[in-house]
Amino acid sequence: MSQVSDTLDTTVRYAGKRTAVVVVTGDVDLHTAPVLRAEALTAVGHGAPHLVLDMAEVDFVDSTGLSTLIVLLHASQKAGGSLRVACVPERLLRMVTMTGISELLPVHDTVADALAALDVAEGAGEGADEAVDGVGSSR
Predict the structure, then answer these.
(1) N- to C-terminal Cα separation, the chain
(2) Label partner for 44 (CA 20 to 30 A): which of 5, 13, 83, 132?
(3) How far apart are alpha carbons 28 and 68 in whole angstroms?
């Protein structure tokens, strides 16, 4: 039986003027989803309505975590942006697909792919190789 973690780490880095990459580490569940929601909404509030969630280090997502993705999708769209997920581990990819979440938001193999697709969709010209403007993290 797996142990539920009360810890979720997020690191937010700004890639371009209107895009934030949120690196998520840990389990996204009832206890930790508010941390992800707060960090991502803070980035949107700071003028980065385009969010890319790097899920490579996520071990588990429950229904609250999935709901959080939908909340972030709506918040980013309301701010004129978008939400994309990247590096979703195989064990979670099936759940994202089966629940229909992948129909609502793009899933990319890498953060670079997500940023490149965002650039194409937006016609922004801000490349995935652009220098990081700022870094912040929380626990």
Answers:
(1) 25
(2) 5
(3) 9
